[in-house]
Amino acid sequence: MDGVLLLNKPAGMTSHDCVYRVRKLFKTKKVGHTGTLDPDVTGVLPICIGRATKIVEYLTASSKTYEAEVTLGFSTDTEDASGEVTQSAPLSEKPDEESVDRLLASFKGELEQTPPMYSAVKVNGKKLYEYARKGIEIERPKRMITISAIERISPVVFNGTTASFKFRVTCSKGTYVRTLAVMIGEKLGFPAHMSHLIRTGSGRFALEDCRTFEEIEADLTDESVRLIPISEALNHLPKWVINDTLAEKVGNGAVLPVPEEFTGADEDVRVAVYNRHGECLAIYMKHPEKPVFKPAKVLATD
Fold first, then answer.
1. What are phi and psi for residue 24, nearest 5 degrees?
2. What is the distance between the alpha carbons of residues 73 and 163, in angstroms, rounded to a whole number?
3. Which Gene Ontology molecular-function terms are recorded (predicted)?
4. Contact 158, 73 (CB under 8 A)
5. For residue 47, what are the β-bridge partners?
6. Exactly one of 38, 96, 222, 244 is catalytic; which is it?
7. For residue 45, what are the β-bridge partners?
8. In this predicted structure, what is the pLDDT of residue 301?
């Protein structure tokens, strides 16, 4: 079976746990996920099966949409509700909602973010959480992220000493939403942490299109499980339909002249190449030194 399985990831499982379970369900080792979710986080986790594992990187690069809750009043070492409290500053009143909305709007665009210590980012060959578990805090490389949309989606609720509210954010690959929650708290003048998170969108895939493990197992029983075909999963990339003569060359990984419609495209553009039957044969890119198209990934079957 080749294609993308849209999983509604349950809480309590790592992304790798989900991959392992899918391997057993579909009886194949060729399985890969398209973007890590922390164990406590639920929601959209596209999983590539069979030949679709070749396109993982092109789905990982897509923007993500989350619905998160930030709680003001105390921070934790993991920046979410599972960690130990590191700083506390009880609130005496409810934050003004108009001020919160203005603050959230100010986060739109590019901004710099420092990955949390409890994360899988590697420094000197080790993942940050490996240092954190030993009580070692090291300097972390900052990264630029992009927030394309952010808004409050619930009232601000005051609980006597803490306050919380939910927000929806669409952001670039590599964004840590729990760190974003901490940044929001800092701007409001309070220690904060992310108290809840669900991924509602990954690229063109939405939560309402995803299936739970229980639903997937039921579908497998009556053989009605649906995988998103590779050609459909790559709909977000520019499309180039070619004739049969070129299709044979593409299947062999040939370098091709740049088609007229892509002569002005950016150097980092990736183009999905389809035959006249609608099958995606390969993903092509501009050659960095020559005026030709070269294959970035060949997907054609024998």
1. -70, -40
2. 7
3. RNA binding; tRNA pseudouridine(55) synthase activity
4. no
5. 5, 33
6. 38
7. 7
8. 65
* Known catalytic membership, residue 222: no
Count how many Cα atoms sit within 13 Å of the Cα of residue 259 in the half-sphere of its side chain: 15
Q: In 3D, which of 44, 60, 3, 56 has the Cα closest to residue 26?
A: 3
What domains can be seen in the chain, in order of their start residue? 3-62+204-231 (3.30.2350.10), 64-201 (3.30.2350.10), 238-298 (2.30.130.10)
* 3-state secondary structure string across the chain: CCEEEEEEECCCCCHHHHHHHHHHHHCCCCEEECCCCCCCCEEEEEEEEHHHHHHHHHHHCCCEEEEEEEEECEEECCCECCCCEEEECCCCCCCCHHHHHHHHHCCCEEEEECCCCCCCCEECCEEHHHHHHCCCCCCCCCEEEEEEEEEECCCCEECCCCEEEEEEEEECCCCCHHHHHHHHHHHHCCCEEEEEEEEEEECCEEHHHCECHHHHHHHHHCCCCCCECHHHHCCCCCEEECCHHHHHHHHCCCCEECCHHHCCCCCCCEEEEECCCCCEEEEEEECCCCCEEEEEEECCCC
* Residue 98 amino acid letter: E
Decide if 155 contacts 30 (C-beta within 8 A): no
| One-letter amino acid for residue 188 of the chain | L
Residues of the chain with pLDDT under 70: 301-302
**pLDDT for 47-106, tens place per residue?**
999 999 999 999 887 789 999 999 999 999 999 998 899 999 999 999 999 999 999 999
